[in-house]
Amino acid sequence: MKNRALVFKEGIVSIVGNVLLFIIKFYAGIQTGSIAIIADSWHTLSDSFSSLVLIIGTKFSQKPADEKHPYGHGRYELISTLIIGFLLFLVSISFFKDSIVNYLNRVEIDFGKLAIIVTIISIIIKEIMAEYAFWIGKKSGNTAVKADGWHHRSDAFSSLIILIGIFLKKYCAFIDEILGIIISLIIFYTAFTIIKETIDKILGEAPTPDTVDYIKNISFEIAKENISPHNFHIHNYITHSELTFHVLLNSKMSLKDAHALITKIENEIKSEKSIEVTIHPEPIEN
Prior knowledge:
By secondary structure, this protein is mainly α. It folds into two domains: 2-203, Cation efflux protein transmembrane domain (Alpha-lytic protease prodomain-like, Up-down Bundle); 209-284, Cation efflux protein, cytoplasmic domain (Alpha-Beta Plaits). Helix content is 71%, strand content 9%. The protein has eight helices and three strands. The chain has a three-stranded mixed sheet, covered by helices on one side. The longest helix has 31 residues, at 2-32. The model has no long low-confidence stretch (mean pLDDT 79).
């Protein structure tokens, strides 16, 4: 409950901060005619949409398991993360196109002090918001919050590029269009990374080598012999994880003793790793 409250708080802070930044950045973009600054402002506003998705996704992910969803609703969090990634992807495509069109039309921009001030404010605020989101993400373990943090970070980085470009304007007449293209590629890469990592989680990931070593060691300690744990499968449902694997047991062992041994291993792993464990025994002849 506490973690969910933290996630909601981050979402609200993000929405309010991004809407305010959008207003001042969009105003600066209109005043200067800069496609890069306007693109950056919409990138910022898209953060608000992603934060709204984050709040909704987190709310649904906390629903308890039911008859139709026995593994809970934790993967709503992954769905919301995917939506954030696709929003970023659409933003990147839109501003890449606009930058190319402006370049072909030879549109020149006259940056002023307003653009410099607004861009510096944006960099500082967005980096603070990114660090705050990463802190909440680490504390709560929420992948969507981490994605939101990268959204903020990419916005801060794009604003930094604009600031550099403003001071390079006298050396390149079409720096704004070039900056727009660079920013769109940064946003695209961020979207690609978020989508790829989320899809990997949905498809399923192999247990880490450290987890496998832990399982083998704890199984040996409890069984007092090598029962060869193998065929590991782990399923991440966000709110909890489930692990299945096989072990080799003496075919002469009674069902009662085999059950007791397996239950002891399952409980130990669950206690140490907070993972629901199911072990499948395979008989071997001695």
